[in-house]
């Protein structure tokens, strides 16, 4: 009994000092992937952290991407914050300005051999302010075209990679082949990212063509949806959905990964789904347009939450997770922001599912591309624009007028 009381007293004393006994050292880490290959890799990195902290475990909590930012906000507001987690680029400014992110600079600078300067300065742009670091990008991943080579072959068409190599892969050719594929195969020519282009992936659907036309959705406090470049880009998409009937329309499921659409847009992390696809496939750059090459990059970073119970330990884990060796490990799914890894053969050979020459497409897009737009009021902007964008996706919609309505809705937030 005396021994039991002694143990209890020691545990209570440790809690009074603000630390946890070794056997309770667990970090909660939120992610939006449930992919087994991703989680196996992440758990391997967590396991390697035990070399220095044998009593620390990391528990990854999956929140679906479409609900991620909202549910994370609820956890923070409800006093149940995770210790660390992933964060999307469109939420970076919102969370940093709200003061809920911990400055990681002290932990990163203290980590042996870390070399913070190895990270691309443009890639760090959303995540730094003065000498503070609010997040470390783990995925600076450009959008690419995934294509079903079997469908292209059966339709007698050159695939997007071959067309790109000839300089013929542009928005007009994209529309042409999508329609031809639909007619030849009786399946959709193209599907928006994860089939969510009308819902949670609105910006992922609209940004690539708008940038290819030389436009933007907003810049310097001014809405760009109603500018001629954006109108022309979205009109082309609208024509493909309702006139050509080559893009999966609202309310329908295409699912490129099960062979029901010939092309989709996504990031190389989705290559992990391809071994079970049952068809030959490849990746290619986004089509160019009147604005020239305009790769679009989705970015995500690892952050530590200021309200977390184990901030210092969590920051140390982030430093471990984003050291050069672990960034090289993650590069198979998540293109890195570390220059030393991005320029290495280790990167081009990192994904066993994608040939090195196609991985070079990814590296080239990172060098030339720009990140999806962010704003400190991103949640309000997306909420304001959603009903107006919904109105766009009707067969009889006036695209120009619908986009003017989008601007009217979001301009006060800009």
TrEMBL record:
Subcellular localization, as worded in the UniProt entry: Periplasm
Signal peptide as annotated in the record: 1-24
One Gene Ontology term, aspect cellular component: periplasmic space
UniProtKB keywords: Periplasm, Signal
A Pfam entry, by short name: SBP_bac_8
Stored InterPro entries: Bact_solute-bd_prot1 (IPR050490), SBP (IPR006059)
Protein origin, superkingdom: Bacteria
Keyword S-adenosyl-L-methionine on entry: no
Protein name: Sugar ABC transporter substrate-binding protein
Phylogenetic placement of the source organism: Bacteria, Pseudomonadati, Pseudomonadota, Alphaproteobacteria, Hyphomicrobiales
